[in-house]
TrEMBL record:
Protein name per its UniProtKB record: Beta sliding clamp
Organism: Terriglobus albidus
Family: Belongs to the beta sliding clamp family.
Positions of the DNA polymerase III beta sliding clamp C-terminal domain: 269-391
Domain DNA polymerase III beta sliding clamp central: 148-265
The protein's assembly and partners: Forms a ring-shaped head-to-tail homodimer around DNA.
């Protein structure tokens, strides 16, 4: 089922009808509300989107949140005294349930869409809205889903999401490209100034012939990342249709509107002949960049990397704050080279690989893109970060 009609088309026909009445443990309810609340639109011009949809039937409570671009549907066991459906203000409910002590909570739909919440000696009534106003949320397709390794996908998101563009005008750069093959998976993101690319081998993905490329929006990746961090499942199910991406993790289904458009030909910009390189401990490099960046120009964040005989020098200066230089001793036997980079972009990469091990910096000359990668990435994955130099 896809959202081809108006997004706020009534969905009452699909819902259990009647005056919902349930009891549920605070722990179970809070866990599911925590998962769903980040999807709810904070500042919306459509009031119903600020609400959770509660649907109770067959001893299960299903909670849905949507902002029209994406939705999350999650469920948990509950004692269902009367099946039914209602909507409850999401932020208010989440904040209130957090403040309640452990124990059973009873939730009951009253007249005029009011919802009564009782827990111990607390008795609260919240103003809901008509269930019929809640938009239809796409259903996970019955066929064609692919199984993807949870740990692998989570790692790939963390190593690329920071390189996604924040500029709304660069629409096709507002997401990361997932490339699935039968024996491998890759993810790539770029904002035009830098590019993060990770490929993992030995990942068996049945059902993929050739390669399947999917552009996943940044917001969806952030949501997916937190779902993957809070699951004990080893795999998730991924499917798509013409308009929607679907991810099913345990009892939760995340959907997202697809990004349309063509992702740039990133393979064309991967450096081929960066023949000068230096290897440094990532901890040393990060410390030096953080110190020197304090004195970089505030707007550009530009720092200078100078490589000469067995030395890597990192420096910056600005008329407002002064100047700073750090030196790291490391083998280097090529011609001296000075390259300028945005310090924040360098730090993003170093944070993504974790503050351990060594990192290799590869260069051609001062005008060409530099490449960074972990020195020991293992045989099962290949991670690289391409960075355009700055004129300084």
């Amino acid at each position: 089922m896809t959202t081809t009609a108006t997004p706020l088309q009534a969905a009452a026909s699909a819902a259990p009808s009647g005056n919902l009445e349930i009891s549920i443990s605070r722990g179970d309810l809070l866990r599911e509300l925590t998962a769903a609340q980040s999807v709810v639109e904070r500042k919306t011009t459509i009031p119903i989107l600020s609400n959770f949809l509660f649907e109770a039937d067959d001893d299960r409570l299903t909670i849905t949140a949507t902002d029209l671009d994406q939705s999350l549907r999650t469920s948990t066991t509950a004692k269902v005294k009367k099946p039914g459906a209602c909507t409850i203000p999401a932020r208010k409910l989440y904040d209130y349930i957090k403040l309640l002590p452990e124990g059973e909570i009873s939730i009951k739909l009253m007249d005029n869409h009011w919802v009564q919440i009782r827990a111990g000696r607390s008795n609260t009534k919240m103003v809901g809205m008509a269930r019929a106003n809640f938009p239809t949320v796409p259903e996970f397709p019955e066929t064609g889903a692919l199984k993807v390794n949870v740990a692998a996908l989570r790692s790939m998101i963390s190593k690329t999401i920071f390189a996604i563009s924040n500029e709304e005008s660069r629409y096709t750069l507002n997401g990361a490209l997932l490339v699935l093959k039968s024996e491998s998976m890759a993810m790539v993101a770029t904002d035009g100034h830098r590019l993060a690319h990770i490929e993992r081998f030995g990942e068996t993905i049945s059902g993929v012939s050739g390669e399947k490329k999917t552009l996943i929006p940044r917001k969806c990746l952030g949501e997916l990342s937190s779902l993957l961090a809070n699951t004990e499942d080893d795999t998730l199910e991924f499917a798509d249709d013409e308009q929607t991406l679907y991810f099913r993790i345990g009892g939760r289904v995340l959907t997202s509107r697809k990004l349309t458009g063509q992702f740039p030909n990133y393979e064309a910009v991967l450096p081929r002949d960066n023949n000068k390189f230096v290897i440094v401990r990532s901890e040393d490099l990060m410390g030096a960049i953080q110190r020197v960046a304090q004195f970089a120009d505030e707007r550009s964040g530009a720092i200078k990397i100078r490589m000469e005989q067995n030395e890597l020098k990192i420096s910056s200066s600005s008329t407002d704050s002064g100047e700073s230089e750090d030196t790291i001793e490391t083998p280097y036997s090529y011609d001296p080279l000075v390259v300028g980079f945005n310090s924040a972009y360098l730090l993003d990469f170093l944070k993504a690989i974790g503050n351990t091990g060594e990192v290799r910096l590869e260069f051609k000359d001062a005008q060409s893109a530099g490449q960074m990668r972990p020195e020991e990435s293992g045989e099962d994955s290949k991670y690289r970060y391409i960075l355009m130099p700055m004129r300084i």
